[in-house]
Design goal:
Elements: E1 8-12, H1 18-35, E2 38-40, H2 52-62, E3 65-69, H3 72-78, H4 88-103, H5 105-111, E4 112-116, E5 137-138, H6 148-155, E6 181-182, E7 188-191, E8 196-202, E9 205-214, E10 220-225, E11 232-239, E12 249-256, E13 259-260, E14 264-267, E15 272-277, E16 283-289, E17 301-309
Parallel strand pairs: 1-2, 1-3, 3-4, 4-5
Antiparallel strand pairs: 6-17, 7-10, 8-9, 9-17, 10-16, 11-15, 11-17, 12-13, 12-14, 12-16
Helix pairs in contact: 2-4, 4-5
Length: 310
């Protein structure tokens, strides 16, 4: 099948009731008309006299995927628990599906897709389709989201792609070494306008990957998405060694998923070290300010020095 060619999908079901038959047709109409699959359904081909057994065999054998609509009548007929003249069509189609699965189980288990509407349950899937040990596809609504799981099986593209594997930093020499990521190298979801990512000197030590606030900004902040991918945050906070006003006091705090820490207050030459557990945290926010800052005086000259995640 070419990449730009719509997959051919055959829908097999039992005529349990007029309501069920109508529901199956509307489902097929949605897949064909809205999703763009090449869907085939008996209700669309009853405009002339035909050999329905031949028609069914052609679709069952040539379709890229066969969607089995679970229902009590379909299960009974598929498992041979009805009279020979009840639901001959669904009995015949289920027998062909069973035969193809016997011929090549690995191939057919990917091709035969059981669908369960809200009016039915997993108990209505024929037992030979292994309803409890293999994937089934509940469809709660006829929407793109409602059929998203079914489409993953048809397209072969998972809803959440597996990421590329990172570099393994373990080994006999020293064991696992956690990755260290400066906050300055992450994408900032939000930040105050006058913040800069640059080097800073605090307490006689130069920190290359720092977040510096040296401007008439009442509050300096940065927000980053951690995605629960880190365990620890370390940083040094302090007043810049080259600050014009040596008497200022900087106030610093962090917020983990919106929950604020107590403030850390530091003066020039007296930096503080921050170390905090960020396991399970989605969003990190770092803040700093100098009390009394206005647009024209008392500028903060502060930095989060080398804030690093690992």
């Amino acid at each position: 099948m070419a990449d730009n060619e719509a997959p051919k999908v055959f829908v097999t079901y039992a005529h349990d009731s007029p309501e069920h038959k109508d529901r199956v047709r509307r489902f097929a109409e949605f897949l064909h008309g809205q999703i763009g699959l090449d869907v085939h359904l008996d209700q669309w081909d009853d405009h002339d006299r035909r050999d329905w057994s031949s028609w069914a065999l052609d679709h069952l054998d040539t379709a890229n995927f066969v969607v089995v609509i679970a229902s009590p009548d379909y299960k009974r007929r598929a498992e041979g628990k009805v009279a020979h003249d009840e639901g001959r069509g669904s009995q015949f189609e289920a027998a062909r599906i069973r035969d193809r699965m016997t011929d090549n189980l690995g191939r057919e288990i990917k091709r035969i897709l059981p669908v369960v509407f809200p009016q039915q349950s997993v108990e209505d899937i024929p037992n030979f389709l292994n309803p409890y040990s293999t994937t089934r596809y509940p469809v709660e609504t006829f929407t793109e989201e409602g059929v998203a799981d079914l489409l993953t099986a048809i397209t072969g593209r998972a809803r959440h792609q597996r990421p590329e594997r990172g570099e393994w930093r373990g080994g006999a020499a020293g064991g696992y070494q956690p990755r260290r990521t400066p906050v300055t190298r992450l994408d900032w979801q939000a930040c105050s306008s006058l913040l800069r990512a640059e080097g800073a000197r605090i307490g006689g030590v130069h920190y290359a990957d720092s977040i510096v606030l040296k401007a008439p900004e009442r509050l300096g902040f940065v927000e980053v998405d951690l995605g629960m991918a880190y365990r620890r945050l370390t940083a040094v906070v302090g007043v810049l060694d080259d600050a014009d006003e040596t008497f200022q006091v900087g106030h610093f705090r962090f917020l983990l998923d919106g929950k604020p820490s107590p403030e850390t207050k530091v003066g020039m030459g007296k930096p503080a070290r921050i170390e905090v557990d960020v396991s399970g945290v989605l969003k990190l926010r770092l803040e700093m300010y100098r009390p009394g800052t206005t647009d024209h005086r008392w500028w903060p000259e502060l930095a989060w020095a080398d804030p690093t995640l690992e």
